[in-house]
UniProtKB/TrEMBL annotation:
This is Phosphatase NudJ. CDD domains: NUDIX_Hydrolase. InterPro entries: NUDIX_hydrolase-like_dom_sf (IPR015797), NUDIX_hydrolase_dom (IPR000086), NudJ (IPR033713). Monomer. The keyword Transport does not apply. Its EC number is 3.6.1.-. The keyword Membrane does not apply. Belongs to the Nudix hydrolase family. NudJ subfamily. Pfam families: NUDIX. GO terms for molecular function: nucleoside diphosphate phosphatase activity; ribonucleoside triphosphate phosphatase activity; thiamine diphosphate phosphatase activity. The gene is nudJ. It comes from Paraburkholderia antibiotica.
């Protein structure tokens, strides 16, 4: 019997700040409605930058231009009745354009919301993960790495 291969899930997230407020999504999860940054999984053939631009547009209808990497985060979630999942999250900050009102949001997204850091901090029970606040705090602390901090050697064709 071949041993099972462990693979972490690679995700991206966007920090979009405008006038002291952060763009978040309210989304359906297995734990109910939760708040998160626009975020999602890296797809085959994508770079991390392409993924964060795509995910932000799909979840918020706002175009996104990454300006810096805020941080890389690893977290593990245990799941009842099945194996836990480890996530590697790459969070970028940048400029968000105006939303396209004709663009539909991803199916699990209920709405987008703009919240101050204090408003986000006041409702941790509504966060999808503890990384929601951690990423905002790191952004507010000025953590920034150049976009070329993560080098993409070669990306194969999209599947």
């Amino acid at each position: 019997m071949k041993p099972e291969t462990w693979l972490p899930h690679v995700t991206v997230a966007a920090i979009v700040e405008r006038d002291g407020r952060f763009l978040l999504v309210e989304e359906h999860t297995s734990a109910g409605l939760r708040l998160n940054q626009p975020a999602g999984h890296l797809e085959a053939g994508e770079t991390l930058l392409e993924a964060v631009v795509r995910e932000t547009l799909e979840e918020t209808a706002h175009p996104f231009v990454p300006e810096a990497l805020v941080g890389m985060y690893m977290t593990h979630f245990e799941r009842p009745a099945r194996e836990g999942t480890t996530y590697l999250r790459f969070t970028y900050c940048g400029a968000g354009g105006e939303a396209d009102p004709a663009r539909a949001l991803d199916a699990d997204i209920v709405r987008t919301v703009w919240m101050s850091a204090d408003e986000v901090r006041a409702c941790p029970e509504r966060h999808r993960t503890p990384l929601v606040m951690q990423c905002i705090d790191d952004y507010l602390a000025g953590r920034r790495f150049p976009l070329d901090f993560v080098h993409t050697h070669s990306v194969g064709p999209k599947r």
